[in-house]
Write a structure and sequence with these properties.
Layout lengths: L4 H7 L1 H4 L35 H21 L26 H7 L4 H4 L9 H8 L4 H9 L7 H20 L1 H16 L7 H5 L14 H17 L1 H19 L1 H23 L1
Keywords: Signal
Length: 275
């Protein structure tokens, strides 16, 4: 893989979600943005899902609960630490933007593609953790205590997030800045119509054995530079923000319920870790 999982999924949204977005309607007004750091940049819908630090808290509480469950069942096992959430949930949302990183890593994301796998658990432990009624299920119930079933609301959130991304890709202001980016890339000998096309280039697919070569490095550096010179990120982020704001206004009750549930889950996790 050559990108953060979320970003990669979103960068393919134009193909996967055609016909799944909300009705387009008029293009919403956009507030000017000046995105200085994608690692700290947030979108409106981010308020309804755990931030990386919050996700790490939930993961730590889950590990603690699983370890206690195994101990009660008389099983001796070291529960492996979960992979921490990648800092900067939107760091790769619009592809490569850091020229210094591009010169070294191209499009690769070794902090994901090359992280060590968890050691395999013995069969008895794995069944106790992951089987029906196992410790994973028990931990989940504890962390969801007091939280109603919000399956429909989560689906609404997913549709809103992907729909806003898809609508932004089709927005005239984003298409215009993509055209300027494409012209900039062409001057460096790279022919891509849009930034997602560069990310999806099969030559640059990342995995545990991938090493970026000169072609990938050159393309990624030009990509990041052209984004900066043409203002791609500010336009793209501003337009997507506007579509997300519109989605929130149309689904306020669903999203308020998700925010309340997240607060409850984090309180449950804090109770676990403080005992």
């Amino acid at each position: 893989m050559n990108r953060h999982p979320t970003a990669g999924l979103l960068l393919g949204a134009g193909v996967l979600l055609a016909g799944c977005a909300a009705p387009q309607g008029a293009e919403p007004p956009v507030r000017p943005l000046n995105v200085r750091d994608m690692n700290t940049f947030t979108l409106p819908l981010d308020a309804y899902t755990p931030a990386p630090a919050q996700q790490n808290t939930l993961l730590a509480a889950e590990k603690t609960l699983v370890a206690r469950c195994l101990e009660r069942r008389g099983l001796d096992a070291d529960v492996p630490d979960p992979h921490p959430a990648v800092s900067g949930r939107n760091a790769r949302r619009y592809g490569i933007v850091d020229e210094a990183r591009a010169r070294t890593l191209g499009y690769s994301v070794p902090e994901i593609s090359k992280r060590a796998p968890h050691p395999r658990m013995p069969d008895e432990i794995r069944r106790a953790v992951r089987g029906d009624g196992g410790c994973d299920d028990e931990a989940g119930r504890t962390l969801r205590a007091g939280v109603p079933d919000l399956t429909a609301q989560r689906r609404t959130l997913d549709r809103a997030a992907f729909g806003a991304y898809e609508l932004a890709l089709r927005d005239s202001r984003v298409r215009a800045v993509f055209a300027r980016w494409s012209a900039c890339m062409k001057k460096s000998g790279h022919r891509y119509a849009t930034p997602p096309d560069a990310v999806r280039d099969k030559r640059f697919l990342d995995d545990a054995h991938h090493t970026p070569g000169p072609a990938e490095i050159g393309t990624a550096v030009a990509d990041a530079r052209c984004k900066r010179e043409t203002g791609v990120v500010n336009v793209w982020a501003g337009v997507e923000t506007a579509y997300q704001d519109r989605a929130i206004a149309r689904n306020r009750a669903a999203f308020d319920a998700l925010r309340t549930a997240l607060t409850r889950r984090l309180a449950n996790a804090a109770n676990v870790l403080n005992r």
